[in-house]
Automatic annotation (TrEMBL):
Pfam families: RasGEF. The keyword Protein transport does not apply. PANTHER family: CELL DIVISION CONTROL PROTEIN 25, GUANINE NUCLEOTIDE EXCHANGE FACTOR. It comes from the Eukaryota. PROSITE patterns: RASGEF_CAT. GO terms for biological process: Ras protein signal transduction. Keywords: Guanine-nucleotide releasing factor. This is Ras guanine nucleotide exchange factor C. GO terms for molecular function: guanyl-nucleotide exchange factor activity. GO terms for cellular component: plasma membrane. Residues 31-255 form the Ras-GEF domain. It comes from Nephila pilipes (Giant wood spider). The keyword Zinc-finger does not apply.
Length: 255
């Protein structure tokens, strides 16, 4: 009783930003392909709007790089939306069903070569509030868990995304990249870097690949306005402090 009272008090003290979280029935009724395609349509448009000059200037400042910030904002929104959609369910069976569906969405995103949204969903599933839900994960089909493990290995941070780089090189085609992949190298190649020659080499490698990836085309995919509205980030959304709140909700669901 005391724990529930504390949970209620914390929720009052730290209001949760508005997030359009679907019901479990609605979420799983919509095919994974539909979610993946709608995310990909919006991600492609956002990624194509980024000018290379934004990465050269200040990729982490909204005034200097508005399109880059919007693109990274989509990543954070989707990651949070994934966590919140899972935690919104009080029933372990329903949570497992949603986790399984998100894994399937990530798999389709991978097939579409949308690494941006794929990474956002996988990072959410690997986040502390979701990863600790042992009862929930135990009810996710083994085949889905194997798929999840395979995707996580490909998008691992280990050795500077070596697995992802190898995958992208082997396919030799445009994609919607995980933005951190670019920002990581651009940040390392910032003009303040001591080794100028290495900096220029890194910068050239990163920036030269941007135009190629921005030729990615998904005009053949159908736009579903209602789904686009559901997946669109809320302008007023503030993610500060939300991580600790999500973890608190997770503990309430599975102590």
């Amino acid at each position: 009783m005391a724990q529930k009272a504390w949970y209620w008090l914390k929720r009052k003290l730290h209001p949760v930003p508005h997030v359009k979280v679907p019901t479990a029935a609605f979420f799983t009724d919509v095919k994974a392909e539909v979610y993946a395609e709608q995310l990909t349509i919006a991600d492609a448009a956002s990624f194509k709007s980024i000018d290379v000059s934004e990465l050269i200037r200040s990729p982490f400042e909204a005034e200097q790089s508005p399109n880059t910030m919007q693109y990274t904002g989509r990543f954070h929104h989707l990651s949070d939306w994934t966590v919140r959609t899972i935690l919104a369910q009080s029933c372990p069976k329903r949570r497992a069903s949603i986790v399984s569906h998100f894994i399937q969405i990530a798999e389709v995103l991978h097939q579409l070569r949308n690494f941006h949204s794929e990474f956002a969903i996988l990072s959410a599933l690997c986040s502390a509030p979701v990863e600790r839900l042992k009862l929930t994960w135990s009810r996710v089909p083994k085949s889905r868990r194997r798929t999840f493990s395979t995707l996580c290995e490909l998008l691992s941070w280990q050795d500077n995304f070596e697995s992802l780089l190898e995958h992208m090189d082997s396919n030799r085609g445009p994609c919607i990249p995980y933005i951190g992949f670019f920002l990581k190298d651009v940040y390392a190649a910032h003009p303040s870097h001591e080794k100028l020659l290495i900096m220029l080499s890194m910068m050239e490698k990163v920036l030269s690949s941007m135009p190629t990836h921005q030729t990615v085309n998904f005009n053949h995919l159908r736009v579903w306005p209602n789904m686009q509205h559901l997946l669109e980030p809320c302008p007023e959304q503030d993610l500060k402090g939300l991580g600790s709140f999500n973890f608190m909700v997770s503990q309430e669901l599975e102590p």
